[in-house]
Design goal:
58% helix, two-stranded antiparallel sheet, alpha+beta, elongated
């Protein structure tokens, strides 16, 4: 499910340009997150299908140019690391999704939040508890800022 979200557009903070992520880019990014940092050879060794070295090298370079990876030259090779955590990316995707839906006059944030709450079932009761705590914290912050 996360990979389908990653296919959404990302805006590169440096250039302001939007870039879609493909399936291979999502897979490579997942591997870099899992390893912390990686070379082309290390990512290539983790792929679940045979790919050329140059394919992985190009994919890592594209993720670097899109602002999702950083790289450092070590010897003759680049070592890549994530520019942001998986959680940061998930949070930003969720924020963009909520803002996109609430900008549509046919929908509202209330509609979206109601749908999300309805989708939680008994096995996800802890999610509701966490959400409740986060709502209380957000209300406290807004009250301190004089916005409530």
């Amino acid at each position: 499910m996360f990979q389908s979200f990653l296919a959404r557009l990302f805006t590169n903070a440096k250039t302001g340009r939007q870039h879609p992520l493909g399936e291979l880019e999502c897979s490579v990014l997942e591997h870099v997150w899992a390893m912390g940092e990686a070379t082309v050879h290390e990512v290539l060794g983790r792929m679940d299908r045979p790919l050329a070295y140059t394919t992985i090298m190009t994919t890592l370079d594209r993720l670097y140019r899109k602002g999702l990876l950083v790289r450092l030259k070590k010897g003759r090779a680049f070592v890549y690391a994530a520019a942001c955590s998986k959680q940061d990316v998930q949070r930003e995707i969720a924020r963009e999704l909520v803002n996109g839906i609430s900008a549509d006059p046919m929908h509202s944030k209330n509609y979206l939040l109601s749908f999300l709450i309805e989708s939680v079932d008994a096995k996800d009761a802890a999610v509701l508890n966490k959400l409740e705590a986060e709502i209380r914290e957000k209300r406290r912050q807004l009250k301190e800022e004089g916005q409530d």
